[in-house]
Write a structure and sequence with these properties.
Elements lengths: L1 H8 L4 E3 L8 E4 L5 E4 L6 E3 L2 H11 L2 H21 L7 H14 L2 H5 L1 H9 L8 H24 L3
Antiparallel strand pairs: 1-4, 2-3
Length: 155
């Protein structure tokens, strides 16, 4: 795990959101549309594939992710190349993305002790704020483990 984390700190890096998911995004329909990320509490530097994997695998339904994932990665790579990024082939992005999907498994696991404490105290009741967060966390874990199986199942 440490080796994988170190590889994501190596160049090429960019500013990472650190918690890139649909609930931290704002989409605007007015003026031709657009999007913005909110809540940069976990911002850092690293490989962009980590935020991309976190968003696609954690926010999208599995069937939708499978349908649009490769097209989005191709478009992302074309965009960064048009904007001056060199020496970062699409295969490099795909490799980083596959590894980032694995790293996305670590993020929900980091909050597991909080869920255990809440469950022991009876705080994860359906409809409660903590229960709703727990249900969301379970959905995200399901999406990410499905993505891991999609990319790493044949290995």
């Amino acid at each position: 795990l440490l080796e994988l984390l170190e590889s994501f700190a190596a160049e090429p890096t960019t500013v990472l959101h650190g918690d890139c998911r649909i609930s931290n995004a704002h989409f605007c329909k007015a003026g031709g549309g657009g999007a913005a990320l909110l809540d940069f509490e976990f911002a850092s530097r690293g490989r962009a594939a980590l935020d991309i994997a976190s968003f696609l695998c954690g926010s999208l339904r599995c069937d939708l992710r499978r349908q649009i994932e490769m097209d989005l990665l191709i478009e992302y790579h074309a965009t960064i190349c048009r904007r001056g990024v060199t020496g970062y082939a699409f295969d490099d992005l795909l490799h980083d993305y596959r590894q980032a999907v694995l790293l996305c498994l670590v993020l929900p696991a980091c909050s597991a002790p909080e869920w255990v404490d809440l469950a022991n105290e009876g705080g994860l009741l359906r409809g409660s704020p903590a229960g709703a967060r727990f249900e969301l966390a379970c959905a995200i874990v399901h999406r990410i483990t499905t993505a891991v199986a999609d990319f790493h199942g044949e290995e």
